[in-house]
Structures
1.
Amino acid sequence: MSERTLVGSFDYGDLSATGTLTKKSHTIFAYESPDQTKSWKIKEIQVWMNPFVESGGDGRSILNYCLSTDFLDEPVSGSGGAMRAYAQQFNAGDNRGIAWGMTDYQNRDTTGLDFRVPGQGIIPFGMIADGRRAVNYLILNTMVSTENSAISALDGTVINYRIVMEQIKVTPTESILHQIRGISQDVN
């Protein structure tokens, strides 16, 4: 079967100061066809932030992401509790998720342009749920928190991604089952 590589980036927007959670979702793949015998298996995923930024001083930030097969439920407000509840959908128990990762960054203040480097604390990682399929949609859900001062979108807060997918054949029944699973929420 053939492989497809999705490469792109999107503007994340403003980052609030001192640990306030922010989020952004970006649809990176949409497949609509009467042919129900095609599906895609995720083979690789990399997600990273633009390294150059006006961070407002030395500190840390974290990028957390979840690649999902359907849209996550939006937070009811921008409050800390609502954002933490939204973040629970990034957990592996939610059937919509098929890949997850996080990277801890060190924001470094320089006399010129500040920069980010992956930090020594939380080791950068990315995982893929083997056997899960992307049938209709792939949505990259991201959350960023920083302990620095607020960072404006004008200062280059960009999320980059590279996703390698392998096209596979499935029966129409398998396709329907993967679609149902891909839109199912965690049922406790």
2.
Amino acid sequence: MVSMKTLKFVMYLFYRYYNKGGTRRIPYFSALCAVVFLIYIHIFQLLIILDKVSLLPMQKNDLRIEKYGKLALFLLPIFLVVAYLIKPSELKTLQYDSEKVRKGGVNLIIYIVANIILLFVLMFALSKA
């Protein structure tokens, strides 16, 4: 299970990344969405492994806007929990040494890529079953 310390560090890494460029006005929201997306990838992986993908609230014949709306409602509880656990003011005060941030950034990229690959492998395995 992920500890609060790890969750805060991952949020910090995303916050730091999104604090530049076009997202510099909304770095907290962007970091929050990125973390929720990672959590959602894990949930989807578990649903595939448990063969419970049908629990997702979407149908094939739904309109695109309906799918996005249902997905948003599905993600909302996770979004609210993470937002409750990590406040923007707390995130702004976090500080880590530059070496830990550098290693954490590299590890986070590897982690994201590995999880996306795993998700596609699981989806491919499910489609063949």
3.
Amino acid sequence: MANISYTGTTCDEEEIIFISNEGLLTGKTYQDFDLVCITIDFSGATEDDITKTFLYGPFDTCSGCTAPIEAGFDYTTCSQCIVSGETIMTSVSQPHAIYTNEFGKAVEQMNSVVLGGINGLNN
């Protein structure tokens, strides 16, 4: 399998040249081990050694690359408000637990709810 020379742009608009394995898509964004998101602009074959590998991708945008991974399903809680004698139903999104995986990527546990405030249950 041939290696590929790539030219890309980080989300901070910095141009970067690197060599990786084939299969990265031009126009898509990938996140490397340093948690830098790079949009692939150009690629061409090379015999040189790999200089960069990626953890995540492809993403359509930089914002998609930097967003936490969502694990599980999101849900909302309905609450009732009485305003001027009128009952109004509202839907409130709950805060979810967020942890960092072994690659330093934030994972948002969508099927959980954070309990308590800044000090957790000791609040």
4.
Amino acid sequence: MVQAKYDQTPATGVDILVDDLGMRQGIAGKLWERKTVYPNKYWADFKLTDEGKKVVKLPNGGDVIEWRPSGLDDKTYTYRITTVAANHLKAHDMGELQDEMLPGADTAKGAKYTEGVNLTGVPDLLQQIAHNPGNKLSTKRQADFVYQGGAWKLQGIS
């Protein structure tokens, strides 16, 4: 039921936080190229290549990554990109159903599970960048079910 709920929602791209390593990987993989370096030597603008435009979208809708870390040694700065490939979330590692008390329900059960992003159709290079530190590709969730009208129904996900 949880996966059916995910499959009914519109597919979306995956947000990826690109850190210093990811920027270098994207340059080496020809997804973007340096366009401008600023006088402080740590700010730069990177233009998406034609290949990059096929696989990522930028938050501002343009084609320039405005790289603005706080200093030369800032290794925590990230820039968010979104994959063009759109997929549904995936539910996995569903735990055992447990009896619950839910308002308005005579019979209720719940289970913890892992909600994960789906990287199907995302190029290997972007998958590698997505696995760099700082990216969250899965989240622990709780699914609540109620028995109503002779059938089990998904009450909610939290």
